[in-house]
Amino acid sequence: MGRKWNNIKEKKASKDASTSRIYAKFGREIYVVAKQGEPDPESNQALKFVLERAKTYNVPKAIIDRAIEKAKGGSDENYDELRYEGFGPNGSMVIVDALTNNVNRTAPEVRSAFSKNGGSLGVSGSVNYMFDSTAVIGVEGKTADEVLEILMEADVDVRDILEEDESIIVYAEPDQFHAVQEAFRNVGISEFTVAELTMLPQTFVTLPEESKAQFEKLIDALEDLDDVQQVYHNVDFED
């Protein structure tokens, strides 16, 4: 499996500097999941998950509270969850997840971002099958063997445990996300370097420098769209 999260993290780091955009996207997602269920993370697992992710991105409490209060207030603002699949240069693949209150706006914007940056929008299912939905949880201060022992003691099954930079990264089935975190919390670990449900490519592709620069522009264009929440791809940015 090696280098999977580090590979993606390198690209994420350049975009995470745009904190206002990140916070706005989290505010929208928190509002949506709080409105769909109870506005209490203890009884709404989807909300609990989003708040765990928000914590790793240092989303201010004021933004979280405002989104939850908006959901409690019975706002009539509604969002659709959409997934787009497409292709970039040299066999690269992209998945785009969006939350939108105007489908007629979002689809053309996503299509335009692809077409203007050397890509093309595909049909549903054209890319998704090459990615695996995966829970990714990272901790510091433990060895891979220690993490394995913690998870075995808690009877939690995972796909893989890898040492990446200064973190130990656990890859698990999506439905094991909270079980992995609880196993760590039970031994006093409450801070996570990463806590994500993501789409990991089954294989990575390496692009020549010219195509890599074009692909980065494509990803930037997609991530800059207000309706886009997440962008996943299979390009190796480490090489």
- Strand fraction equals 15-25%
Low-confidence runs of at least 5 consecutive residues: none
Major sheet, described briefly?
4 strands, antiparallel
Give the fraction of residues assigned to helices: 40-55%
Taking all Cα atoms into account, the compactness measure Rg is 18 Å
Structure write-up:
The protein is an alpha+beta fold. 43% of the residues lie in helices and 22% in strands. The chain is built from 8 helices and 8 strands. The strands form 2 sheets. The protein has a 4-stranded antiparallel beta sheet with strand order 3-1-2-8. Helix 2 runs antiparallel to helix 3 (45-56) and helix 2 (19-36) packs parallel to helix 4. It is globular and about 50 Å long.
Task: Characterize this entry briefly.
The chain is of the alpha+beta class and 239 residues long. It has 8 helices and 8 strands.
Which SSEs are present, and which pair or pack?
Elements: H1 4-16, H2 19-36, H3 45-56, H4 61-72, E1 80-87, E2 93-100, H5 103-115, E3 120-121, E4 131-139, H6 144-153, E5 160-164, E6 167-172, H7 177-185, E7 194-201, H8 209-223, E8 228-233
Antiparallel strand pairs: 1-2, 1-3, 2-8, 4-6, 4-7, 5-6
Keywords:
239 residues, alpha+beta, 4-stranded antiparallel β-sheet
